[in-house]
Amino acid sequence: MYIKYLDNIHNLSNYNSVVKGGAKNNCIHLQKDNGHFHSMEFNDEKSRDFILAEIWSKIVKKNDYYDIDNIINDYYIANKYNVV
Q: pLDDT tens per residue, the chain (84 residues)?
């Protein structure tokens, strides 16, 4: 599955795991087996957990791609107005 984040494309098959992390615990790390990782940072833990759940949902449904850039701004706006 491919993920688009900040106009970059990441192939999840190049990573071994997708985990929570970051100094403020608001990141998702795409980790490789050699210790390298790519970090995706969000505004807060709630946003991070929402995106992580969405990624898992897309994996389970066997989707080919997930555009985080497309959904995250809508999520922040909906959260601001207490819609989600």
A: 999 999 999 999 999 999 999 889 999 999 999 989 999 999 999 999 999 999 999 999 999 999 999 999 899 999 889 876
User: Can you state the angle between helices 45-60 and 68-80, rounded to 10 degrees?
Assistant: 140
CA distance 79 to 33: 35
Give the β-pairing of 2-5 and 8-11.
antiparallel
Spatial separation of the C-alpha atoms in residues 73 and 83, rounded to whole Å: 13
Strand order from edge to edge, sheet including 37-41: 17-21, 27-31, 37-41
Domain ranges of the chain: 2-80
Q: List, as one string, the DSSP characters of 18-82.
A: EEEE-TTS-EEEEE-TTS-EEEEE-SSHHHHHHHHHHHHHHHHTT-SEEEHHHHHHHHHHHHHTT
